Queue: 2 jobs
Job 1
Amino acid sequence: MPALSIPTVASGDVTPVLSLQGIHKAFGAIVAVERFDLDIFAGEVVALVGDNGAGKSTLVKIIAGFHPPSAGRVLIDGAEVTMSDPSDSQALGIQVVYQDLALADNQPVYMNMFLGKELVKGPLRRLDRKRMVAETETLVKQLDVRIPSAKATIRDLSGGQRQGVAIARATHWATKLVLMDEPTAALGVAETAKVEKIIETLKARNLPILLISHSLDQVFRLSDRICVLRRGKQIGIRETAKTDNNEIVSMITGLST
Amino acid sequence: MIAVFKTIPPSRYVIYVGFLLIFVTFAVLLRNDGFATPSNLFNIAQQTAPVTVMAIGMVYVLTAGEIDLSIGSIVAVSALLAAVVLREWSWPVAVVAGLGAGAAIGVLNGALVAYGRLPSFLVTLATMGVFAGVARRMTDLQSVPIQNDFFNAFFGSGSLLGLPSLILWTLVAVAVGYFVYRETRYGAHVHAVGDNARAARATGIKVLRVRFSVLVLSGMLAALAGLLYAGRLHGARYTLGEADLLTVIAAVIVGGTRLNGGSGTIIGALIGSLLMGILNNGLILMGYQPSDQMIARGLIILIAVATTLREPNR
Ligand SMILES: Nc1ncnc2c1ncn2[C@@H]1O[C@H](COP(=O)(O)OP(=O)(O)OP(=O)(O)O)[C@@H](O)[C@H]1O
Ligand SMILES: [Mg+2]
């Protein structure tokens, strides 16, 4: 283990939902993540912060099964998993709000909501569009995502509405862990508040959340712990209640304030 | 009314208006040349059957964000293989051989594209050339007559319940093609992969498998088109399918399928294919040469591209 202090909110005998051990990722000569260790426990929000290019999205894609790590282990509920494809993380109940949202622009909202998990009916296993539309309508209403209709095409939605769809999809399918890569980046004040409320609801469902955000105010409002990454290096993890803005900023930038 | 049109991309209805316009124009211009007679229209519908069958495959391929340029060569190889096999064996063997050849070329295309991660444009451009050569080699440019009556009736000149077999094949291919495209999870995955492959992968869709499968499907449908030609002409020749690539792509694009993937329409492809058939037939009746038909087809593609690429946000 590196010389990092890794405080946890939970007591020692609780198994973390997600445990990253010695994760290293290089793209050719570029080292995106040098060495990363983190345990995330049920019902906690861990914020991952760092400047542009620090390696945050790369970590998310490793946990999602998009990239295999160059070295290191990923454990879910204490058992090591090797993911060769995002379908593996999906099967484990891990859901991701990607930075680029990962929506199919020419498909309707309801198809995006059920992408890869489409509902079918009857012996011919026909797509059950009616039910997918109905469930989508209910879901977006519950989450207060304002879209014209579940049948609207993604291309015709605003940036914030798209973000809402991506978040609704992730929250709908998550049973184990939610990763959110800058979920409020494109949102206005009211929409941001809604997303923060959603995150709190997820937390109340005892789901662990890894939240990436450039807004430190938001990070301090929502997180239990803050993990700082700088140019691929894990600088440290702090309990949110026991740190302050200045410390985190100096960890992010590497300059003392 | 206007509002309804605004919600549908122009490519979706332009084909129906265009089809009607061209049909009416020919019906008026050629009112004394037998254009709009039932027998001529029936004839057009039968002649377009192979193109329609290939067009259905092309809708899948384009929707998945790929292209298949090798379909014309597959037509020739499959038809010739079936014809050669029919000299010695029964028709089921010939059908399996013909369709199998198309499937095998489709597997080659699909494997190189999906698992070799090569662009389908280049892969199928290459296999188009290779199998055009193979078709010429197979019988040393000789055409092969087919004397098997059942084969000729089943794929070409026969009929069932008063419907010519070529029209029946068209109906079956369109019905099955439509159902799978619109009503199944597989169809939804084809759409998603062509729309945003990364997003499709992120939701657990097996992107490579979809890419592979659409090229196999396209190969098999091109092979079926080859059998339809062989049945109608009672024989096969290396030139079969040679000129069809442009017609198929024109039919599909005019029909409203996006060239850059993510959306398309099977019914539109059928209408597009019939439109190309009407155009050919009308131009012949008006006394134009095949060269003029080629020019007309090229212009049609231009018009189609000009309308479909003018979508909002593009
Ligand atoms: N597929 C890839 N191939 C090569 N290099 C990559 C790839 N993905 C990421 N990188 C590199 O890895 C580094 C970390 O990128 P990453 O996207 O993880 O940063 P980030 O912390 O999410 O930044 P931002 O806040 O801007 O989203 C960058 O230098 C980036 O160029
Ligand atoms: Mg990022």
Job 2
Amino acid sequence: MARKISFSKALNEAMIQEMERDENVFILGEDVAKMGGDFGITSGIWDRWPNRAFDTALSESAITGLSCGASVCGLRPVAELMFADFITVCYDQLVNNAAKLNYMYQGEASAQMVVRAVTGGGIRCAYHHSQCIEPWLMNIPGLVIVAPATPYEAKGLLVASIRNNNPVVFLEHKHLYNIKGEVPEELYEIPLYEAHVEREGTDITIVAAMSMLKFAQKAADEMAAKGISVEIVNPRTIFPLDKETIKESVAKTGRLIVVQEGPKVMGYGAEIGAMLGEELFEYLKAPIKRVTSLDTPVPFAPGMEDYVLPHYEDVITACNEVMAY
Amino acid sequence: MSTMIEMPRYGANMDEGTIAAWLVSEGDSVTKGQAIAEIAIEKLSNELLAPEDGIILKLVGTEGETYDCGTPIAYIGQLDENVEGSTSVEIEAAESGNTKSSSSDATMVVMPRYGANMEEGTVSTWFFSEGDMVEEGDVIAEISIEKLTNELLSPTAGPFYSLVEEGSTVKCGKTIAKIGEGDVAEEGEVVSKCSPSEMDDVITGNKENTLVLEDSFETIASGSSVLTPKAKKLADELGVDASMLKGTGYHDMVTREDVKKANEAGALNKAGGTSTPINRKMTAMEKAIAAGMYKSLQETAQTTITMDMDVDNLVAFYKANKADYAAMGVKLSYTSVIINLVGKALQEYPIMRTIIDGDMFKELTDVNIGVAIDIDGGLVVPNIKNADKKFYSAVATELAELANKAKNGKLLENDLTGGSFTITNLGMFGIKYFTPVLNIGESAILGLGSIRKELASKKGGFYKKKYMSFSLTHDHRVINGAPAARFLNRIQELINEL
Amino acid sequence: MALSKEHLLKVYEDMLLIRRFEEEVEVYAKNGTIPGFIHLSIGQEAAQAGVVDVLKDTDYKFPDHRGHGAIVLSSKAEDRKRCMSEIFAKASGINGGRGGSMHVHDLSVRNMGFNGIQGSTVVTALGTAFNSVYRKNDDVTVVFMGDGTLGEGTCHESMNMSATWKLPLIYVLINNHYAISTHYTESHPQKQLSTWGLGYEVPSFTIDGNDIEEVIEVTQKAVDRARKGEGPTLIEMMSYRWQGHFSGDPAAYRPDGELEAWKEKDPLKIAKERLQEKHGVTADEIKAISERVEVEIAKYVKFSLESPVPKPEDAVKYVYTDREVEGR
Ligand SMILES: Cc1ncc(C[n+]2csc(CCOP(=O)(O)OP(=O)(O)O)c2C)c(N)n1
Ligand SMILES: [Mg+2]
């Protein structure tokens, strides 16, 4: 497993290899074919399969609607939302169609589609191109939200998402596109609905997804130097959550910090906190902490944006607080 | 030599008699002087006694039929004897046409697994005999597991062959029957052959009583344990030494629940000592049942009458209609059909739902039929409201729902109150007759026995008939024998009219 | 294109079946047996029966909220009772009681159901039409929509894409004049709604939606075009719903006399007169059809009434294809 490639390349490879394997897989979206996507993630696909890569009009409803309909016919669409923020103009198709098809058809057919959505802030593009949209979808049973944090996960989780028969919103954080990591050349799947313990520890559990994972890792190193052992859980699938892995970890450490890039209200941190309060109360040694953005739109000016997004120092503060409690 | 038994003459004036009931079946062995039939002459009935020891070879007389005195009605003798002078015997087609080929396309029927915890089950009744043709979805057996019973459906159509006897307890997944001709790979290995009710005790019996003690013994062997923060607090409060407890929480941690249990077990140990009998406090349900049963028998004049119902028509109705109901998503069952019929009869016989209240007779106007359901730790009798007004489908579904709720402890107050009559079924255990105890606040309860096949004769030939015995307990203060008997007869009529 | 006597007899019976189906549904909706609200299509039978008559079982159909007729006629004869029992919220219903009136589907005949969100299926239908192109077969897709639904933005996205990619998609726009209480002239600039298609260079027609012969003729042309890969067609079918928007709506917004005038143009009456006058069909033959339909409908009703309700706890099934959702 020596080869190191970027997160973007891993995604690209996942799609190409799945398309080689399964001719029901096709890609569609704005500028995904000839140009290879705004972020270049689909490059090279149209060149190989001009009849399986489609540039669409600016029509997110049509893109996701078509994906629903084509899924029911047995195809496996992989649609790209250039920015996850645009999900609002095709929300109906995801929420009212994709998430309900299997239920309505009682298992006979389902929206076996993937919507790749480019998410997250920090690129100085303001509130229409920087939001973390997972909370907008987290209370829609029937949908799956997948959130890779490394190139290895990018490939394995995208392959699993394409093969999965549920509608998957696949979140790609802009900041991760260029990071490099070891990625096997062959096709492989990382199972959905399973969180991954990135690092074992006994004193504090930090749950962190996507770009927040690196905060957690750095904080774990820093705390280790002080003799505090941090366990890191990366959810990988944000919804439905792998409650068991998180519970096992927190039962051991008795302390939980959730790091999430979006606003504090109603993120995965809120869900995990509430769930543990209900189901694991007796194991807790300290209050649950959330490190998040402020509850504002994402502003444009770099100083303002940095102020709003979560800070690494906040993670350290939270660690100290739960240990001192 | 077999001995012929004739219609007896009990007096000079007697010319003919009616076989009211056969008390034995073919193949039964009898001893001299044993009653083998009930013979009715006008208003009287007499028992016909066996003239010698032997085996009942043939019952040529049919129940309900009247014969001249001196007409042969049965033969008694030793095994392998032929019946002399018996008329030609009609044998069921399936039985004679039963040439077993060795082509191995028979479908195996295995002991099903109804839940993750089920390891073995008991075949309490086979509903078909060797070689009978079955349809896919036919109820072929009643399987009992601990306190529950389930109907086993045929996976396919074809001739049926059982491979284990009724009453056998078999491991899940082992073959217990086959549908179709052909060889069987492996037969169910019979774990035990004691009666299902005995099995109940073996399987569930005293285990619960010893559980707590076992737990506390085990802890001595294990090493020191980790407590959750809240468990530690509780252990301190209760003064429980938790250092040796075995935890059931995440990472085997000791939880609040574990501490509480250890605390209770400690108290129990002290109270009961070690070598004295195990005392267990009765649960609320057990107390209620004990009190209820006693009260019922103390305060009413209970008496039970029984009747063997001809249920051929019921079986035919079930077979003819089950597919239609399956299309609606309803699993029709014999019990549900009987509940419907009993509902109709109850509507016509208000006396059966009349109770004594002080010095008043009180008629319960709603036909709400209770069904006794055996559950872990007791017995519950939820009732189906207005059963007389409901479709078969509605009764079948409600029955399934109530059973399910009962099993999961989810019955509501409303499910358990307002009953006006009760049905209880022990047929799956092979019980024919019993004396059910009245449910408090009701004047009658009907016990259903097993469905069984018996030979009957018609026009000199024999054919198989299906019977089910109904045992009706009624409060004689309200319901006299005759109305009770008429009520049973009405049910038979309704079965015939199905 | 005049239909043969046999053909006209067959679609007459189809229309009568819809009429009687809807009348029974109305009875049980009004007496509370059917929960929720129901949109009835009495008065619009020709548009539904005519379109379904032209389609094969392998063509994709997206009925809309007023689509009981199209749903029932698309179904196989033996499944029609299950369409009704679904509306009755019964376990035997074609969706097991999960969908109800607005979501009756049957994938075995490619009746795709789903239509609670106006304008939603208009884009979903792109997918099944796209599938025919992707797999190079000649299945066509029909999406039903109302005059009011044309106000949804998805209609633009859909026609823009289907016209650009020449998808085998037929838009059947049943113009029954109202979206709830709003007359189509109050919500759209066009006098004739089919002109909407012209901007996308899509062949567009406005026809008498109560004349089943005309419905079949024009639908057949559109289907032929689609099968040949010539792209989408828009057919506006003028019609009128006799009942209110939902069962129970008194429809006070209609001017006096309007309903009566439309009842004169009853699609069943038109077809019956033609059968009698042009094809010499006798009153007895017509009566025999009615009797057949009555027997059929009686079966559906009995089945629907007798079927049990679904188990509440089954509500947690089928949320995901591969994992369980916690029950209570
Ligand atoms: C997106 C959306 N908006 C509003 C509604 C509520 N609604 C249901 S039917 C309807 C009117 C539809 O009118 P039309 O398309 O003409 O169909 P018709 O009812 O006349 O058959 C409305 C407003 C809805 N279901 N979905
Ligand atoms: Mg309208």
